[in-house]
Design goal:
Blueprint (H helix, E strand, L loop, with lengths): L16 E2 H19 L1 H20 L1 H4 L5 H6 L1 E7 L2 H12 L4 E7 L9 E7 L3 H6 L3 E7 L9 H13 L5 H13 L1 E2 L1 H14 L7 E2 H10 L1 H7 L8 E4 L4 H10 L20 E6 L4 E6 L5 E6 L4 E6 L5 H13 L3 H11 L4 H6 L5 E5 L14 H7 L2 E5 L7 H10 L18 H8 L6 H19 L21
Parallel strand pairs: 2-5, 7-10
Antiparallel strand pairs: 1-6, 2-8, 3-4, 4-5, 9-12, 10-11, 13-14
Helix pairs in contact: 1-2, 1-9, 2-12, 5-8, 8-9, 10-11, 13-14
Amino acid sequence: MSGGAGRVGSGVGSGLVGTTELRARFAAALSALYATEVPAYGTLVEVAGEVNADVMAADPDAAQRLGAIERVTAERHGAIRVGTARELGQVGQVFAALGMHPVGFYDLREAAAPVPVVSTAFRPVDDDELAANPFRVFTSVLAGDDRRFFDADLQARLEGRLERRELFSPLLLTLAARAEEAGGLDPEDADAFVRLATAAFALSPEPVDAAWYAELERVSGVAADIGGVGSTHVNHLTPRVLDIDALYARMTGRGITMIDAIQGPPGEGAPVLLRQTSFRALSEPRRMRGADGQVHEGALRVRFGEVEARGCALTPAGRARYDAWTAAGGTAPEREARWRRLFPDGADEQAAAGLTSVRWVPVPDRPRDDRGPQPDLARLLADGWVRAEPVVYEDFLPASAAGIFASNLDGTGERDAAEGASHRDLAWLSDALGREVLEPADLYAARTRASAEEVAAALDLPPLAPPAADDLDESALRA
């Protein structure tokens, strides 16, 4: 099928290109596209590779505790923004063809630096799929009816423009539905699908209505990036690095302007959750149409290069501690001292305290002692009967996401806090998508429970409950 026109193949038969391979091809094609659009992204990937090679050389076992280096090297997460529930549903269909499910609800309107969007992340959820290619796309949809950001007149004009645009061709959506149903596409259709899907996220050469874009930008730079143009595009594409502090220093040394800080938890101790940073959004040439209809050369600053370092997922109790730590604020020394009071440095200590999500694995050929294994996972870990393998945190942090968005905008826009918010929650997101949005905590807990059951069976023990964390000691949050 040439140029995305012609016959749509049946999508059945033994020669299918499966969804896993489709996802890998799409991730590679999107990365190649973004490197041509944002050359500094190529530098970011190069430096991440150098850092990862150095970390691997120093201690290969430690470097791969949270995933094999092949996975880390291939790992990317993208970010896109759409304007309406209809567009969001279409995005969900495209990513379903790639074996990617909507996971999590993020309300960036409530962040310290509010952005008028709610978001989810499309990603694989099965262990084998994550190991094969853990491509994720953080996807935000505009809350155009939120009166804190948009009055009724602006909402009506915005929605009118959004309803008239077409982000994804009918052929792409047809192929996507077929791939989801059949588990893949025949080779000809697979090539067409990847080509069409990649093109859908390319930066459009169409001129931007300068006055309309500026009107939305007064509300939010993110609102302008979504509703001020006729298409969507990759907002950033993020490689994974094993030492984000080293990368930050090396990028700065190469003359790349980074944002002011690394977002997320501190770097001390066993890594948890997600640490992120980025280079500052670059001024990109864009064709602009003035009020007189004339097109001139202009520039916009909306796209940037993000990089991430991933740690172990937290249990709900661990996440409560993290959220309390984030809300406490304070100076850097105060934040570090609080962190050390809330989280042990060692990965095993974190697991035994019920703070992290892990896979419990029986230790093979362990010499038996007279006492034998005790029916307590923390005790089994301390006695050497089991080991705790960290479960990689595959999701995102709304405060960090909003912080990076804000760090890459020239201004925060306008927001009338006296007005009421429009309703958005996980159920709204599921309805908009026509698909269940999965809860990240449920996915991590299921892995931990399943592994605890396997340990009990292997060691001939009664059912084992994962360790329960102590209640949060509020005094630990004091400066």
